Amino acid sequence: MASIKGTRSRGIALHAVLVIGLLLSAFPFYWAVIMSTHTATEIFSYPPKLLPGSHFLQNVRSLFDNVDFFGSMLNSLLVASSVTFLVLLFDSLAAFVFAKFEFPGRRLLFGLLMLIFMVPTQLAIIPQFVMMAKIGWIGSMTALIVPAAANAFGIFWMRQYMRSAIHDELLDASRIDGANFLRQYWHVALPVVRPGLAFLGIFTFMGTWNDYAWPLVALTNPDNVTLQVALSQLNGVHGTTDYGMVMTGALLALVPLLIVFAIGAKQIIGDLGKGAVK
Amino acid sequence: MATALEKPPVVAEQTPTAGPRTGFRKYWHLYAAISPFYLLFLAFGLIPVGFSLYLSFHRWDGLGSMEWAGLSQYRYLLSDSDFWSSIGNTVIIWALATFPMIFLAMVTAVMLNSAVRFKNVYRFAYFLPNVTSVVAVAIVFGSVFSTNFGLMNALLQAVGLDQVAWLNTPWGIKVAIATLMTWQWTGYNAIIFLAGLQTIPSELYEAARVDGAGPVETFFRITLPQLRPTLLFVLVVSTVTGLQSFTEAQVLLQNTSNDSTFSGGPGHAGRTMVLYFFQQTFDNNDFGYGAAVAWGIFLVVVLFSIINWRLVQRRGEE
Predict the structure, then answer these.
(1) In contact, B253 and B167? CB cutoff 8 Å
(2) Which UniProt keywords apply (chain A) (predicted)?
(3) How far is Cα B112 from Cα B134, in angstroms, rounded to an integer?
(4) Which tens digits make up the pLDDT trace of B124-139?
(5) For chain A, how many structural domains are there in total?
């Protein structure tokens, strides 16, 4: 009896601590909502406002007046969805080959892939910038899309996934039926690895959506940027004056991500750990 | 490697995973399927990295002609106190963020592992900070740590303490950046630790209970040693990403200087290595020196990764 009681109170204490952690995780989002619903004067007053105010729509209006919010959001959508599509296509093709086929140079090429995984991006930034300036990509979204169209992480991850998910018997059967490589990829491999593609797709989309350093230097035309760069401009210029508006921008920029995350959360959280413990 | 003289065996077509080697023509479709990545890497990885090595031995402003500089960029790098202080800033911020983060993440994971109910709700909520953009989060944290109207100072004032000019003092800046990073990565790593915890066989825990081990002893004797591979993974990833941090400090401190958005705040206290790299390259247009700085950063990251690896490995052998 006593031990049951002890277990229960321990359970309550456990949940109490976990809920505190949950509130700490959620608090900045709440804070962003508070700030985006107040005027600058209200934000600067003491004691700080802890409940939402009534100036959200005004803040939204001045946000849209000050920055091309939808234009930059469209740019972000264009970049993130193109990169995601290309990454899914190229990475899954390469992963299929590395997971299921034997050919000369396979080990060497895969080893090279793992090495590439470790090369830091700064090393390539200057030459990339110079090269792209020469071919006229600087300032356009192409500069963000093309270099990101395939990556070592995705190929490695998909290969691990495909090795166990696609059964050799299925491939053999399809070959006997006369299916060529592309048909096998499309009709045998892809349907089986759809959950893996969902993980990689969501992961890539969110990562690309949040990219900042390279877009900041590559998008030289301040009127044609991605959402993250636009937000940063807004913060740089208006950060010290109209905090309500800047915070509204930050909040609205989070919305598409939260939607994507809500759709794919189960996949993301479930698969994330797999790669780490394997 | 295969030569054209080898006879292509007939079985090659039938056994995909164990086909003997033969000429290029037989496998061209496989090479074609993996080629996009390698072509992109060649164009945007290998050639640029090679070029940046070449560049680091030159003086170049990106427009005029390149001038051979020998080792002078690297010699300057070694004596450049700004670069060394940026290493110091980066390491301090990394340590301030990483150790509390790993501790909190592990505690959270252990608690999540023993909590039966609402596990998915917690996992969802704890992961949320990690999917949000660093830019947006840095803007929000900028307001939390603001000297004039920030929540932190309001809290300090409410309990009767002196206010702190967070984004104006060397330690305030570092604490603010580290807090942001800890907030953003604790839940992510907790979920990775949780996955690691779930691979520990329950017989081990039962054996410990039979032996009369308490929860603390169980944690240090069983949980921690079993979790070592996961810990290594988390530590290495945190080191590689933490030492290359850029966005947090850049967005938090971009307003503080009139001449450079990469200044890292008053006294350059938040100027990380990568911020310094951007400042030298894109504000000063010093492409040659920027390339040398990039290689310097690379070496520092490699060095720290090796140290991490050694530390965790050695503890494993004891």
Answers:
(1) yes
(2) Cell membrane, Membrane, Transmembrane, Transmembrane helix, Transport
(3) 26
(4) 889 889 888 899 999 9
(5) 2
**Within a domain: residue A258?**
no
Residues B40 and B155 in one domain: no
| pLDDT for the residue numbered B4 | 39
Domain of A112?
67-238
B178 & B129 share domain: yes
List, for residues A130-158, the tens digit of each pLDDT value.
999 999 999 999 999 999 999 988 998 89
Q: What is the pLDDT of residue B2?
A: 38
Distance CA B228, CA A181 (A): 41
Examine residue A252 and state whether it is found in any structural domain, yes or no: no
Q: Has residue A257 been placed in a domain?
A: no
A147 to chain B, closest Cα gap in Å:
6
Instruction: Kindly report the nearest CA distance between residue B48 and chain A, in angstroms.
Output: 5
Indicate left, alpha or beta for A53 from its phi (over 0: left) and psi (-120 to 50: alpha). Answer: beta
Banded model confidence at residue A272, pLDDT cuts 50, 70, 90: low
Cross-chain residue pair A124–B44, CB shorter than 8 Å = yes
Examine the domain organization and report whether B50 and B85 are in the same domain. Answer: no
The domain containing residue B22 runs over which residues?
A: 10-55
- Give A31-80 pLDDT, tens digit per residue: 999 989 998 778 777 777 788 888 899 899 989 988 899 999 999 999 99
Distances (CA, A) of A110 to A88, A92, A97, A99, B70: 18, 14, 11, 10, 35
- In this structure, is residue B3 part of a structural domain? no
ipTM value of the model?
A: 0.86
- Give the global pTM: 0.87
Average pLDDT, stretch A120-129? 86
Contact B45 A124 (CB under 8 A): yes
Of A41, A58, A75, which residue sits at a domain end? Answer: A58
Inspect the interface and report whether the beta carbons of A15 and B118 lie closer than 8 Å: yes
